[in-house]
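In the design runs reported in the main text, the only information available to the sequence generator was the tokenized backbone. The following block is the verbatim input for one such run; it is reproduced so that readers can re-run the procedure and compare outputs position by position.
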């Protein structure tokens, strides 16, 4: 039983359990899918505790693998929709945990980057709790914030450097495009460091947990979404250059000068120092200065 919670949930998985399960399937971890399994039960308990879940909550887990975290979530009494891209692992989860968890577990074999989220979870409030594949973690988080309002809170495990970028504010060396894309809809905080020793296979990088909470209403609403994203991407595309020079790679210099002046931003400013409000003002100015 996990953490004294729900009935009919087996103990949390150890490294020996993970190795035995993979051996029984004749399988090895797939590096291409970022398959590094958490094999430390105490780390799973820590994640579940930091997720601040209540019995009956609806939780989405992306990349459940063999169910290390899934078991911890079920033990907390929540309903889990587990999205697993690897067909072998999805089938194993369904076979092993389905009969025990009953309707509280739904395993979906799909790619989280392309799944039809409205059809999958509807409009009811959900929490994302996941050990995300490192190579797509940022894309998943930003995609959910931008397009899946039903997920209003996340606790995700990602590479430490990615966690720093997700939570960084203006002036921080890690502040960049992901920071802005996340901050325009949510507040992100790095809440825990995770050692590579809790994984098998052991990754070559450190990990961290990031708590992301959607803000209602959103802190800013850019006048033009495409221009906002393009401006931020251009600004951070050449971090060592001034904002004027970075933006001039995308727009005519005269248009950039006029937009910066209209937004009250010095041409010598750098992208990592701008606030959300300044990016919104710059977007409005760029749209207003568009060639006619």
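Verbatim output:
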């Amino acid at each position: 039983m996990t953490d004294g919670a729900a009935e009919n949930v087996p103990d949390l998985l150890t490294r020996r359990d993970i190795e035995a399960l993979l051996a029984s399937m004749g399988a090895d971890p797939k590096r291409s899918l970022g398959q590094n399994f958490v094999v430390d039960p105490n780390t799973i308990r820590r994640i579940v505790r930091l997720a601040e879940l209540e019995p009956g909550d609806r939780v989405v887990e992306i990349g459940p693998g063999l169910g290390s975290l899934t078991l911890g979530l079920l033990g907390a009494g929540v309903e889990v929709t587990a999205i697993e891209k690897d067909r072998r692992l999805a089938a194993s989860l369904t076979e092993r945990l389905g009969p025990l968890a009953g309707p509280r577990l739904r395993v979906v074999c799909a790619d989280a980057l392309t799944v039809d989220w409205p059809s999958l979870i509807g409009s009811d409030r959900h929490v994302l709790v996941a050990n995300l594949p490192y190579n797509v973690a940022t894309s998943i988080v930003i995609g959910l914030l931008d397009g899946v309002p039903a997920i209003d809170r996340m606790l995700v495990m990602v590479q430490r450097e990615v966690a720093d970028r997700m939570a960084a504010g203006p002036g921080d060396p890690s502040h960049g495009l992901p920071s802005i894309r996340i901050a325009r809809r949510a507040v992100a905080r790095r809440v825990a460091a995770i050692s590579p020793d809790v994984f098998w296979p052991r990754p070559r990088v450190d990990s961290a947990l990031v708590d992301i909470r959607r803000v209602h209403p959103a802190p800013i609403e850019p006048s033009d979404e495409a221009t906002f994203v393009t401006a931020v991407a251009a600004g951070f595309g050449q971090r060592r250059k001034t904002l004027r020079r970075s933006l001039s790679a995308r727009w005519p210099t005269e248009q950039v000068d006029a937009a910066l002046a209209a937004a009250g931003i010095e041409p010598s400013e750098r992208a990592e120092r701008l606030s959300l409000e300044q990016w919104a003002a710059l977007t409005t100015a760029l749209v207003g200065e568009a060639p006619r």
